[in-house]
Amino acid sequence: MRVLVAMSGGVDSSVAAARMVDAGHEVVGVHLALSTTPGTLRTGSRGCCSKEDAGDARRVADILDIPFYVWDFAERFAEDVIDDFVDSYARGETPNPCVRCNEKIKFSALAARAVALGFDVLATGHYARLSGGRLRRAVDADKDQSYVLGVLTAAQLARAAFPIGDTGKPEIRAEAARRGLATADKPDSHDICFIPSGDTQAFLGARIGVRRGAVVDSGGTVLAEHDGVHGFTVGQRKGLGIAGPGPDGAPRYVTKIDADTQTVHVGAAADLDVRRLDGDRPVFTSGRPFDGPVECDVQVRAHGGLAPAVVEVRDGRLVANLRTPLRGVAAGQTMVLYRPDPDGDEVLASATIATVAR
């Protein structure tokens, strides 16, 4: 089988490539150049896809004795991930760029090129498992990345492989060390790869500009002014620009963002609880929509934000009625549906949250 391995230059994709070689496949490694200025995309454990990362991936490929290439996806990444991220925040939403990167870049643009070149499978270093074509959580719950893969279609999953999903992270590092891979002790990337400084507000402000508005309480009283709703997220407590807590002495949180009027609403913690989520652009990992209501767990963040729910399809949307409320859910987030299973929870579907209701 011809296998293309996406090699980020980290330990996970390094071991994924090594395991595919061990399995006897014809393996080729590829590193994605996602920035026109790659030297700016790594600062220690922040960022990724830098020249340093490309060099690390190439050295691993040399040790494994497999062909290796760097493919330029910078323009596509800028349009489908970075621009989408900025536009979403400008609309008062809270997007997840890792979800969009998997959906638009790795398992769409990259996978399409792999198929065109005659590869059978695209393998990555994600912590997730495939069983009978169905996506499941990884063995290592702390590293599980099935959430950010929940947007993949049945056709995309049929051509995917996640070789390390059955192993914990410490064991992956140990395996890399035994194989003599220099990435064994390399720090994991965290935060948003295209914002290596970690200052999301400054990044957004430079691209969106000043769009002044008001911060108001539940009664409509103006508490402060701001330079743009892109500086806020639902559930935010600090940096609101308001003088102290509410009249009851309790902290105040961002409870709603109205980009049309540039209004940021604040209220009590209890005002963050939501019991219904409506999601656009649903994707069903089986390839078929639900026939009726489905009992499942709904997850709204990469780690955490999980609640039991009854979910059904209405007018092309996924509608989730939560049996227990979730706190601080925002439009733009991805909701991923799981079927509880002793062998590893199975991903059933996903959608982009459009509206929330208490």
From TrEMBL:
The active site is at C101 (nucleophile), C193 (cysteine persulfide intermediate). Keywords: ATP-binding, Cytoplasm, Disulfide bond, Nucleotide-binding, RNA-binding, Transferase, tRNA processing, tRNA-binding. The record marks H126, Q333 as: Interaction with tRNA. It catalyses: S-sulfanyl-L-cysteinyl-[protein] + uridine(34) in tRNA + AH2 + ATP = 2-thiouridine(34) in tRNA + L-cysteinyl-[protein] + A + AMP + diphosphate + H(+). GO terms for biological process: tRNA wobble position uridine thiolation. One of its GO terms (cellular component) is cytoplasm. Coiled coil: none annotated. Residues 202-267 form the tRNA-specific 2-thiouridylase MnmA-like central domain. Its EC number is 2.8.1.13. ATP binds at A6, M7, S8, G9, G10, V11, D12, S13, L32, G125. Pfam families: tRNA_Me_trans, tRNA_Me_trans_C, tRNA_Me_trans_M. This is tRNA-specific 2-thiouridylase MnmA. It comes from Mycolicibacterium sediminis.
